[in-house]
Amino acid sequence: MQTETPAPDRARLMSGEEYRESLRRLKPVVYVDGQLIDSVADAPSLRPGVNALSFTYDFALRPEVQPMALATQSSRNRVVNRMLHINESSGDLLNKLEVVRVMCQETGCAQRYLGHDALNGIAQAVARIDDARGGSEHRERFAAYLADVQDRDIALGVAMTDAKGDRSKKPHQQANTDAYVHVVSRDAKGIVISGTKAIVTGAPYMHELLVMPSRNMSREDADFAVCCAVPVDAKGVTMVSRPAGRPGDKLEHGDALFSRKFGQSTAVVIFDKVFVPWDRVFFEGEWELSHVLTYSYATHHRHSCIAARAGFGDLLIGAGALMCEANGLDPDAKSNLREPMVELIKIVEGFFACGVAASVYATQDAHSGGFMPDAVFSNIGKLLLATQIYDMHRLAHEVSGGLIVALPGPDEDHNPATAASLAEVLRANPDVPYDKRIEVARFMEDLTASYQAGWYSLISLHGGGSPAALKQEIWRNYPLGNKVDLVERLLDRGVLAESGERSITRNRQPGRCCDTGCTTPGQPVMVPLPESRKGRP
Question: What pairing do the DSSP bridges indicate for beta strands 156-159 and 226-231?
Fold first, then answer.
């Protein structure tokens, strides 16, 4: 008699305010602009970043988005926050893509998805190590940690990119070995690590950091092949952070309407003889397979970056349309506006479509059982957004007109000598009040022509891997051999096709759908979209 699976229980989810309170209980060593931060949760310089993470917590509590924001971890039959979930199907990847896009529509960058990407990468790496060694130690240690973070609903930062020092040398060849995080000593209780990680997104307002190797390692680099979890306030951890967003700046055109509320900090994190107990060490010294984590995390993260920048693109599309309306122009009637608007839509939905394809063509990892987005589509999507982010800004400027350049300062709104005149001459569409037109223009300036906008462009270009790294992965994974086989078959060149190993035929893959059909094990492919992502019928 078949026993029915009981209904899953549910991890307790934190609210945004509970998240803030949890930060107040931590005492990390954080410096921003040379100043030691007493309380991360209450520091004005970090408030936009804390706001962004707080939003992700409140978002997951909204009943209408929970089918998308939450997921069932089948190994525990437990409903958890999707940002802490190991993907079990193509549907999981599609829903992760959607939830990241919707959260980034609100926050610019929700940041918490990096922890999701790292957890999925680590799951694949430890399974591969165990299978190579014929054991289960690494799997079990990571599974216990995963259950703990899911049940506590904590935010995880990713400390992957090392300071690197001389880029022409390997980690063990560096004059200063602290350019890379490495194991200093080991004993029965755990390991001690030292070194420096750069570009750690949101580090000050996370709960823990997932420390991971940033490159392939050689035998001589075994001490640098380390992956572990470290609380942000562990003894010996120091963070040197950028402010998040633009809180409190005295700006030429007034308060930053978006980045004063939501923003993103990055930090250099220095580890100075930090003790890590064994139950938080996922692997150390396994240099032969450290590349598995580097590769798998990069693929998961580039897949998520696609969704994040699509959410940002939604802001540009909406603001561009509002500027057209405020200027008294209708893209339906003006092809010179309609064409750049369509171009902007094409860019955003084009790279997002690569994320959808990467999800649909996902494969199940043979070792961990988790689902991996297709590497080619993930890297193409990330490459498109990285290189077209500047075109997105240009097109938003094109449809907005020149008002952004000539915006009067906000003090003029209250200047009796100029306010009335400005309200008359700077009004365009009679149905859109002057102050509403100016508000949209200032919002567009904040998104595209500010210090923060330039920083988002740079992080879009290099975050998750430089264009060169993306191109390398596309070339390494693209089934060029199938295309060569196709043409040689049509040309009846079977002899050449069988003439031994050829570099151009190295990569091949079976038909994407034809071998197994399109039904994927696991959860349904998609849950219903939230209203913000539904198109018109």
Answer: unpaired
122-166 confidence digits (pLDDT tens): 999 999 999 999 999 999 999 999 999 999 999 999 999 999 999
pLDDT tens for each residue of 278-308: 999 999 999 999 999 999 999 999 999 999 9
d(CA 93, CA 377): 13
Q: What is the 3-state secondary structure (H, E, C) of 23-56?
A: HHCCCCEEEECCEECCCHHHCHHHHHHHHHHHHH
**Distance (Å) of CA 135 to CA 129, 141, 369, 526:** 8, 12, 16, 35
Contact by Cβ (8 Å): 452, 263? yes
Distance between first and last Cα of the chain? 46
Fill in the DSSP letter of residue 407. Answer: P
With residue 182 as reference, give the H or E element that holds it: strand 182-186
Helix/strand/coil for 274: strand
Q: What is the DSSP letter of 14?
A: P
Tell me the pTM: 0.89
- Looking at this protein, which amino acid is placed at residue 215? R
Helix (H, G, I), strand (E, B) or coil at 185: strand
Give the pairing of strands 266-277 and 237-241.
antiparallel
One-letter identity of residue 265: S
Q: Which residues contact 152 (CB under 8 A, 6 or more apart)?
A: 207
8 Å CB contact between 213 and 219: no
Backbone angles phi, psi at 196, to 5 degrees: -135, 130
Q: How wide is the angle at C-alpha 22 spanned by C-alphas 115 and 274, nearest 5°? A: 60
Ranges 38-47, 509-518, 525-534: which has the least confidence: 509-518
- How many C-beta atoms lie closer than 10 Å to residue 285's C-beta? 16
Secondary structure (DSSP) of 133-169:
HT--HHHHHHHHHHHHHHHHT--EEEE--B--SSTTS
Mean pLDDT over 3-17 rounds to 90
Helix (H, G, I), strand (E, B) or coil at 295: helix
Residue by residue, DSSP assigns 207-271 as SEEEE---S---GGGGGG-EEEEEETT-TTEEEEEPPSS-TT---TTSS-TTTTTS---EEEEEE
**CA 518/CA 360 separation, integer angstroms:** 8
Count how many residues are written for the chain.
537
